[in-house]
Amino acid sequence: MAVSILGALIACSTVAFLGITLYFSHKKNSPFLLYLATVIYNFAGSLYLFSSYPVAWAEPGITQLLVMTLVILIPLLFGSLPSLFLYYSFDRFRKLTLFPFIFGIAVMATDAARMLFITLINGGESSHMGLNFVSGSFGESLTLTPLVTFSYGGGLLFLSFFVGLLVGSFFNRKGAPLAGLFILIWFLLLQIPAAKETPEVTVNVVTTAFSDRTVKPSLSQKFDTLRNLSKSLPEATVTLFPENSHFLTLSQLFSSSSLVSSPFIFDSSFYSMTPKSVGAFLYNQNDEVLLGRKKVEIMPYSEYYPYFAIPFLKATLTKSQYRFLIDGRYSSGGEGTKRSFQVNSLQIASVICSEATSLSAHYRIARERPDILFLQSNLSTFQRKPLASLAVESYARLLAATVRAPLISAHNDFTSFIISASGKTLFRLPAGDGSYTFSVNSGKILFRE
Questions:
Q1: Which fold has domain 201-297+332-448?
Q2: 114 CB contacts (<8 Å, ≥6 apart)?
Q3: Which sign, positive or negative, has the C-alpha torsion 208, 212, 213, 217?
Q4: H helices present in 212-281, as ranges
Q5: Do the Cβ atoms of 203 and 438 come closer than 8 Å?
Q6: How many CB atoms lie within 10 A of CB 17?
Q7: Which helix (H) or strand (E) holds 374?
Q8: Is the bond leading into 234 cis (omega within 30 degrees of zero)?
Q9: In whole angstroms, what is the distance from residue 149 CA to residue 91 CA?
Q10: CB neighbours of residue 129 within 10 Å
């Protein structure tokens, strides 16, 4: 209930903020005012990234905070430039009856260009160009509300259009009835069932509490924890582990039976070591890998370092700290990587952590028409902070509603989410060690005691 209320407040505040800023920037004849307000709005949407402070590889203090602020703010300064589209469309077309639709398209184009600009500035080794980094966009403001269901088929950009439609209707009362009729027809079309009939499957979900900020457990301790968690689970179709669980690798290392009562196991481990990369793997009870794929959209400052940030890092870190970062870089999979696995007659799409923040990834997954989404993440860097939790839930809801498939997540050291095909949060699994069982039948998810 608290998240729903907060989501409604964020949505209403965004519509009001955009409308008021447009009014005053036009009154003052100052597109810069709109640009500055957009920078502030985008920065507010990225504040959850500070949940990772202090990062483990540098001394905490004002210098680290300053560097974090700069490397977050600089891409946003470029990413907010497309807000000039909004000023131009408002100034030129606001008296037209179709202005709500024109302004909806303008907000949609602004959010798309913003993501492209930020991705370009955050470019680095192994990064991919595309519509990445959805946080801070206008459309994202609707993801924690029931309106997230409007993202079906078009993702975040449909929500951006919706925001623009609302703001445009406020400034053009002649076009408001037509916009209202359009929204009504849109809503009615969304009521058409999209989920196909699929056989019932049961999914065991294992969540863990391995933290990067405390003394790391030994490999044997980690394996014992994973095995004890999975032993307590009932028989199921598939068992899902968080990102970088390395369950299969550890089972082989200690020459031990996994003791998982599922014919299929969905694990995450290193896909390769030279260069280092993360992958998702489907294997059976005999520890035979059936399918595997490499993570594609990787995370800046966690798995790669943007070219523009290298001078800042060199200037503020010791040589050993900088070398630690560079040696820890990851490689990424190709954009054409297939993300779905066939389990019995079900198509299960694999989503690995930061891939959930990429709209381009959402579109590629949607094209594979999966029946279920599995999201695996290692989020200990965010220290279970509430702001980060809202951001992760927002991405998960957006992804599920865009693809119109239920989403089951397994996270390390973070809240895990179970999301319906319409983008509604059904269950929040507490951060920490835990094991749960769910049944999925034709797109519907039920918790099993």
A1: Nitrilase/N-carbamoyl-D-aminoacid amidohydrolase (3.60.110)
A2: 42, 79, 80, 82, 83, 136, 137
A3: positive
A4: 219-231, 247-253
A5: yes
A6: 18
A7: strand 372-378
A8: no
A9: 31
A10: 11
**What distance in Å separates the CA atoms of residue 314 and residue 321, rounded to the nearest whole number?**
9
Greatest C-alpha distance within the chain: 73
Rounded distance between C-alpha atoms, residue 17 and residue 329, angstroms: 39
Structure tokens at 159: 């929500």
Looking at residue 300, the DSSP 8-state letter turns out to be: B
The side-by-side arrangement of strands in the sheet containing 407-412 is 340-343, 346-352, 372-378, 407-412, 416-419, 425-429
Give CA–CA dist 189/183, Å, rounded: 10
| pLDDT tens over the chain, length 449 residues | 678 889 999 999 999 999 999 999 999 999 999 999 999 999 999 999 999 988 766 678 888 898 889 999 999 999 999 999 999 999 899 999 999 999 999 999 999 999 999 999 999 988 999 999 999 999 999 999 999 999 998 999 999 999 999 999 999 989 999 999 999 999 998 887 765 677 788 999 999 999 877 767 788 888 888 888 888 788 888 999 999 999 888 888 886 665 677 788 889 988 887 778 899 998 887 777 888 899 999 999 888 999 998 888 888 888 888 888 887 788 898 878 889 988 888 899 999 999 999 999 999 999 999 999 999 999 999 989 999 999 999 999 999 999 999 999 999 999 999 999 999 999 999 999 999 999 988 778 888 75
Looking only at the bridges linking them, the beta strands covering 201-207 and 425-429 are unpaired
Residues of the chain with CATH 3.60.110.10: 201-297+332-448
Q: Are strands 444-448 and 238-240 parallel, antiparallel or unpaired?
A: unpaired
CA 261 to each of CA 197, 200, 245, 264, 361: distance values in angstroms, whole numbers, following the listed order:
26, 17, 18, 9, 32
Residue 342's identity, in one-letter code, is Q
Cis amide bond preceding 60, omega within 30? no
Residues in Cβ contact with 318 at an 8 Å cutoff, skipping those fewer than 6 apart: none
User: Per the structure block, which two tokens stand in for 287?
Assistant: 């520890």
Instruction: Give how far Cα 147 sits from Cα of 9, 184, 217, 396, 409, Å.
Output: 13, 12, 43, 14, 22
Phi, psi of 265 (to 5 degrees): -130, 130
